[in-house]
């Protein structure tokens, strides 16, 4: 009974637990990255694992690809598309948790340090999804949400151009990639190729694709792609970040979502619960790490143990907020007054 409070609400279609399993990988990677960054800042001891944990920030591109897959899958299955209803669904789903957490963090920060024009301006920037063009004093992690929101707005329009033609989406991805090499804007163009990976996977899923004959080999390649995707991120060169990693992520997602590898493991209840609550975890984890980290640093001297404890405690505390701050807004049309 109580476990149900921590499971996502599915408003339409068939629930696919493996997608929440993928979200679990992404959010845990981000948590590890931010925990390590916090401990690097506030503990004098160096960590032998920091170079490994540093690559956790590539959980964000994984999130982007998952979003591309999920939203494109919905568009491909929709017979009569309404841009208005599409926007309403996006707003009712993401805005309430975002607004609540942003305002709460703004008030807590202001009561601690005082109200001033700089914080007010930063609040305006965050609420209007324009903080990537300036300073974000309220909640630094929302930079990626701003990228997602732009993608949400543009995807249906891009779909009118490319529809379900793979080469057109590949061309769009390549064009935005080339553009971003000349103009490094904090905007969708810099990250669109990650979304395009998910879009292409969604299109491939609608087509008849034969299963790979050598399942064990396919599973090995899929797992290796995931390991290398995070592992090679340590070597931040243009070749690896912009070419090798997208290819690795594509084949990993292809193995999971098209060839159906590792669905049993990705569907573990603990994984799907954390993955299903990834939005609220993402919104508040940075502040939870800061508060709990300062409390635990004097108690736990071993850096690696403290890091693992922080990841677990942060995940559990954020999950406690899920039934209140996210789950009620998952239901389609939750705001409508019932007669």
From TrEMBL:
Does the entry feature the keyword Transmembrane helix, yes or no?
yes
InterPro entries to which the protein is assigned, alphabetical: Acyl_transf_3_dom, Acyltransferase_3
The UniProt keywords, alphabetically, are: Membrane, Transmembrane, Transmembrane helix
Keyword field contains Membrane: yes
What transmembrane ranges does the database entry give?
A: 21-43, 55-76, 135-159, 188-204, 216-233, 239-258, 265-285, 305-325
Record domain Acyltransferase: where: 17-319
- Under the cellular component aspect of Gene Ontology, which terms does the record hold? membrane
Instruction: Output one GO BP term.
Output: polysaccharide biosynthetic process
Give the residues annotated as coiled coil: none
Protein name (database record):
Acyltransferase 3 domain-containing protein
Organism name: Maribacter litoralis
